[in-house]
Amino acid sequence: MAYPVLTKEPGAIETAAMIARGDMSPLEAVDAAIARIERLDAHIDAVVVCDFERACERAAQLTKAGHQSDQPLFGVPMTIKESFDIEGLPTTWGYTAHADNIAKADSRVVQLLKKAGVVFLGKTNVPPDLADWQSANPVYGRTHNPHDHERSPGGSSGGSAAAVASGMVPCEFGTDIGGSVRVPAHFCGVWGHKSSWGLISKEGHDHPLMAGRGAHDAALSIAGPLARNAADLATLLRITASIPLSERSQKLTDSKVLVLIDHPSCPTDDTVRGPMEAMASELEKAGVSVSRSSDLLPDLAKQHSDYMRMLNIGMARGAPAKDGKRASATDWFDLLDIQARNEMAWARVFGEFNFVLTPPAPVLAVPNSQTRVFDGKLSINGSDVPGAAGLCWAGVATFPNLPATVLPIGESGGLPCGMQVMGPRWSDLATIEAAEEIGRVLHS
User: Given the DSSP bridges, would you call strands 289-291 and 256-259 parallel, antiparallel or unpaired?
Assistant: First the structure.
């Protein structure tokens, strides 16, 4: 099963290995990445905040210092989602009113990646409030899908995925509450990981209205990496994880997987169904135990409804909804109880299955639109479906705080199609490794 690939540029680990061997210096790696951005980004508009001068200065310092064995990504150039603070650069979240919000310190993720040897070249595009499956805003304009410029790269980490897919940078870091890492990975044909909630610190990833004041780690929302291969995802995860993670030892052929393609809250387009069905058949041929239903599953329609309620309250920080009603503290605590019970239900599922495989979204990359995807309609098998219904597959992993790794599995009409591999909470490295094994089955 093939999927469209736009670049043969090396990934993060491979780049670091080339630098360690002396095949290139950090400065040469950074210069080459800047040249790619300047060549490729004119029609994509992914890297919207450039910090090339400081990047070259940092790369020159690393070149002079020489390779450091305790820095796994020594000299590797990358960018990061605009919503992460980098000292001296703007953090606007897509709002012109916050164009002058200059970060005074690095976010925790940036600190850890710099400590690992990364050289940051700048920041990538987002939608306003990080709240769309497009990445367009009045500050930086619109990011286009590198496979089809008339389509979205996804959101809210759309600039991140577009930069990786096109080969501008080997890896990136985004955030996800409604598929914001997974959907861009799916739309752009790259790898992405939604981490277990609480695994990666989001310190320094605060709305500009909270700049410098600090904020709680929002319910449901996580930080996670994007790359062009599984090994890079795992490396980025190990560098940024707040707690140690256990490594997986079980082979895919010794695992039981549950494949879900249909969700009661939204139909699945045939362009997604086809690659998912073909993937399941290939796994069965490879000797993997594949089931397509389970009585252990929680009520997915109810889960989606509960997820959407928590998502909307959380995104609005408790402000009144469109109907004028405001959630009370009791409402919020009741939702936390419901979420806990849902997580327990999924734990029972993972008592029977090692992994659950689902689409990241019910459609492939959507056409560019002047309105938010969630405020419009999705065209699914020739019928219009409310855009917000498309969040059903994001919520499957988000509401119970589970990890989910997206890998590309195929294509339709030249557009890539991805799949998410879900596992028990804190099994992040296991879902990445399982995704890597699935990729080998499908693409070897």
Answer: parallel
The DSSP code for 237 is H
pLDDT at 246 over 90: no
Q: Say if residue 242 is exposed, middle or buried (CB neighbours under 10 Å; 0-12, 13-18, 19+).
A: exposed
Q: Which of 135, 160, 180, 265 is catalytic?
A: 180
Would the CATH topology of 12-240 be identical to that of 252-443? yes
Surface-to-core class of residue 295, CB atoms within 10 Å of its CB (0-12 exposed, 13-18 middle, 19+ buried) = exposed
User: Strand, coil or helix: what is 415?
Assistant: strand
Tell me what pLDDT residue 49 has.
98
| 11 pLDDT tier (thresholds 50, 70, 90) | very high
Distance of CA 430 to the CA centre of its chain: 17
Closest-CA residue to 223 (of 168, 165, 156, 169): 156
* CA atoms of 175 and 157, how far apart (whole Å): 7
Parse the chain into domains and list their residue ranges.
12-240, 252-443
Q: For this structure, is 83 an active site residue?
A: no
Closest CA relative to residue 243, chosen from 434, 433, 426, 431: 426
Helix axes 428-443, 230-240, angle to 10 degrees: 170
Give 252-443's CATH code, choosing from 3.90.320.10, 3.40.50.10090, 3.90.1300.10, 3.10.20.310: 3.90.1300.10
CATH fold of 12-240 reads: Amidase signature (AS) enzymes (3.90.1300)
**How remote is the C-alpha of 225 from its chain's centroid?**
6
Tell me the pLDDT tens digit for each residue of 182-212.
999 999 999 999 999 999 999 999 999 887 7
62-71, 148-157, 314-323 — which is least confidently predicted?
314-323
Q: Please indicate whether residue 201 is annotated as part of the active site.
A: no
Q: Which of 83, 156, 160, 166 is catalytic?
A: 156
Which of 25, 81, 135, 160 is the catalytic position?
81
98 class by beta-carbon count within 10 Å (0-12 exposed, 13-18 middle, 19+ buried): middle
pLDDT average, residue stretch 131-159: 98
Q: Is 156 noted as a catalytic residue in this protein?
A: yes
Q: What is the pLDDT of residue 1?
A: 83
Helix, strand counts (H, E) of the chain: 12, 15
End-to-end CA distance of the chain: 9
